[in-house]
UniProtKB/TrEMBL annotation:
A Pfam family annotated for this UniProt entry: Sigma70_r4_2
Keywords (A to Z) from UniProt: Sigma factor, Transcription, Transcription regulation
Record keyword Transcription present: yes
Family of this protein: Belongs to the sigma-70 factor family. ECF subfamily.
UniProt name for this protein: RNA polymerase sigma factor RpoE
Entry-linked PANTHER family: RNA POLYMERASE ECF-TYPE SIGMA FACTO, RNA POLYMERASE SIGMA FACTOR SIGZ
Signal sequence annotation: none
């Protein structure tokens, strides 16, 4: 109501309100018939192919149906609302098309490894062996079983007979010590 008078809405707004409030399929068909050709023409004038324009129109009108509850005639005219959805969808599609496709990443084979990589790996392994030797024998034993032997805590418990809490503590303390030792090497 405006100054005591009911607001006179356009036919398109009336259809949109019927879709919003009652999920009226006949009103939606009227919206589609009205906006479909206009959206298609606008998209094609902006350089979109006919097939792509049809896809965008379908997508936009599906969004209109899904988002009908968010339409507020006091905030926007139905035409502005629909064309804004179309504009945003077109921008999304253009961005997606312009996004570079990542190249197929393949892991290098062993033959491709160069001498520097091999030396670097050997140096890292030597640092890790030194750091492991700095651990107490008890810590080293559970850390090696957990990380090099791929054993679970329960499997380590079965092998050693140690309580689960002790195993977890030794692993945690051992890993902290390894981090400290490896950080000192850098």
């Amino acid at each position: 109501m405006q100054d005591g008078q009911p607001i006179a809405y356009s036919a398109q707004t009336t259809w949109m309100l019927a879709v919003r409030d009652h999920r009226d399929k006949a009103a939606f068909a009227c919206l589609f018939d009205h906006f479909g050709p206009r959206l298609r023409g606008m998209l094609m004038r902006s350089g979109v192919s006919a097939a792509q324009a049809e896809d965008i129109v379908q997508d936009v009108m599906l969004s209109v149906w899904r988002k009908a509850a968010s339409f507020n005639p006091e905030r926007a005219d139905v035409a502005g609302w629909v064309f804004q959805i179309a504009r945003n969808r077109k921008i999304d599609i253009i961005r997606r098309e312009r996004r570079p496709v990542p190249e197929d990443l393949s892991e290098p084979t062993v033959d491709e490894a160069d001498g520097e990589q091999i030396v670097a790996l050997e140096q890292e392994a030597a640092k890790l062996r030194r750091a492991l030797s700095a651990l107490s024998p008890e810590q080293r034993s559970v850390v090696e079983r957990a990380y090099m032997g791929d054993l679970t805590h329960a499997e380590i418990q079965a092998e050693t007979g140690l309580p689960l809490g002790t195993i977890k503590s030794r692993i945690r303390l051992g890993i902290e010590r390894l981090r400290h030792e490896l950080k000192g090497d850098r």
